[in-house]
């Protein structure tokens, strides 16, 4: 899989997710075999105007590379300057968000709003392409009607503007995450452009990765919500691609992953902020396991990394003891 000058080791990509695909989460995905991770969407306006909070979203770690940084905005000059800041920060790919349908983003004329303003979109892409040497990608939706015409036209325009790949989540702007993703549009887009097409949407498990590739001919698959608390989906998909049965994480795998997530988060955010975040996030990794709700309650007021670590270890040790065979 190649995007511009960048060669990826496999066709699995982590989707950008606001408030989720922060650096610690991205590291877990890379460790599980994901070939490319993407930041949560970053405001070009915030970057250009020196927002410290926005700039923090571009912080990276060598072990998560390659990294794609996704920006959003509507003003060609602001997007151009934002792209230059991203390149200066050391990202490996610059991605433009044309798919976010959150109302406050659409009101700004950004995200999926740009798909109904082709002239502005063209100006944005040309401005960015003229300013950076990084591989340039876009992430789009179906558009504002289910026909998919806006998606096809946006992808073709992007290719003409020098964009190196397009990712598509084939739901309309008004669908949000409701209904079903129309994978036939991924196949249609693959026929309409010569640049790589990345499919996204309704990946529930590793089997769906292969099914999407088979049904659409897409060059790569982008996995989003199915990876939350489940970074093993990348390793499992790679197993299937290599004709191996997908490995199931055991309790030790889960424990070690959670402990690394705590460690990475404390290192990146500092102990106070990280522990506060972990109160709601560690439950991702115990979903479906016995007494998960009890575990979430037990960590809801913890204040230190040490206490959080001890609570995690106690939960998984209890789980392990519960499944040990009784001695005779």
SSE blueprint and pairings:
Layout (H helix, E strand, L loop, with lengths): L1 E2 L2 E2 L4 E3 L8 H9 L5 E2 L3 E2 H5 L3 H5 L10 E6 L3 H14 L3 E6 L4 H5 L10 H14 L4 E8 L5 H12 L4 E8 L10 H10 L4 E4 L5 H11 L3 E4 L8 H10 L9 H19 L1 H11 L10 H7 L6 H19 L5
Parallel strand pairs: 3-11, 4-6, 5-6, 6-7, 7-8, 8-9, 9-10, 10-11
Antiparallel strand pairs: 1-2
How would you describe this structure to a colleague?
The structure is a single chain. The chain has 2 domains: 240 residues, TIM Barrel; 70 residues, Orthogonal Bundle (Non-ribosomal Peptide Synthetase Peptidyl Carrier Protein, Chain A). Helix content is 46%, strand content 14%. It is built from 14 helices and 11 strands. The strands form 2 sheets. Strands 3, 4, 5, 6, 7, 8, 9, 10 and 11 form a 9-stranded parallel beta sheet that branches. A two-stranded antiparallel ribbon has the order 1-2. Strand 10, helix 9 and strand 11 form a beta-alpha-beta unit. The longest helix has 19 residues.
Number of strands: 11
Biggest sheet: strands, sense, closure? 9 strands, parallel
| Helix content estimate | 40-55%
Quick one: overall form?
globular
**How many structural domains?**
2
The total of helices stands at 14
List keywords for this structure.
328 residues, alpha/beta, TIM Barrel, Non-ribosomal Peptide Synthetase Peptidyl Carrier Protein, Chain A, 2 domains, nine-stranded parallel beta sheet, two-stranded antiparallel sheet, 14 helices, 11 strands, 46% helix, 14% strand
Structure described in brief:
The protein has 328 residues and is an alpha/beta fold. 46% of the residues lie in helices and 14% in strands.
């Amino acid at each position: 899989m190649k995007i511009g000058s960048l060669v990826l080791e496999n066709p699995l990509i982590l989707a950008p997710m606001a408030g989720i695909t922060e650096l610690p989460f991205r590291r877990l995905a890379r460790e599980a075999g994901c070939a490319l991770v993407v930041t949560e969407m970053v405001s070009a306006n915030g970057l250009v105007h020196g927002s410290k909070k926005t700039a923090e979203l571009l912080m990276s770690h060598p072990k998560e590379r390659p990294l794609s940084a996704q920006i959003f905005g509507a003003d060609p000059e602001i997007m151009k300057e934002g792209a230059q800041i991203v390149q200066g920060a050391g990202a490996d790919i610059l991605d433009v968000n044309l798919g976010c349908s959150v109302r406050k983003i659409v009101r700004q004329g950004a995200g999926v709003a740009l798909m109904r303003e082709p002239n502005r979109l063209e100006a944005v892409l040309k401005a960015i392409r003229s300013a950076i040497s990084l591989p340039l990608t876009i992430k789009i939706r179906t558009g504002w009607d289910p026909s998919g015409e806006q998606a096809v036209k946006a992808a073709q325009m992007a290719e003409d503007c020098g964009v190196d790949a397009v990712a598509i989540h084939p739901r309309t702007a008004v669908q949000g995450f409701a209904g079903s993703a129309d994978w036939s549009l991924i196949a249609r887009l693959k026929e309409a452009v010569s640049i790589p097409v990345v499919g996204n949407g309704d990946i529930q498990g590793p089997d769906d990765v292969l099914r999407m590739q088979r049904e659409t001919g897409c060059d790569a698959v982008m996995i989003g919500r199915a990876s939350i608390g489940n970074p093993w989906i990348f390793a499992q998909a790679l197993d299937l691609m290599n004709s191996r049965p997908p490995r199931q994480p055991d309790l030790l795998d889960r424990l070690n992953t959670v402990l690394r997530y705590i460690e990475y988060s404390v290192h990146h955010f500092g102990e106070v902020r990280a522990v506060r975040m972990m109160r709601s996030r560690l439950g991702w990794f115990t979903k479906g396991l016995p007494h998960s709700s009890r575990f979430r309650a037990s960590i809801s007021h913890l204040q230190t990394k040490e206490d959080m670590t001890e609570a995690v270890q106690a939960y998984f040790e209890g789980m392990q003891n519960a499944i040990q065979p009784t001695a005779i």
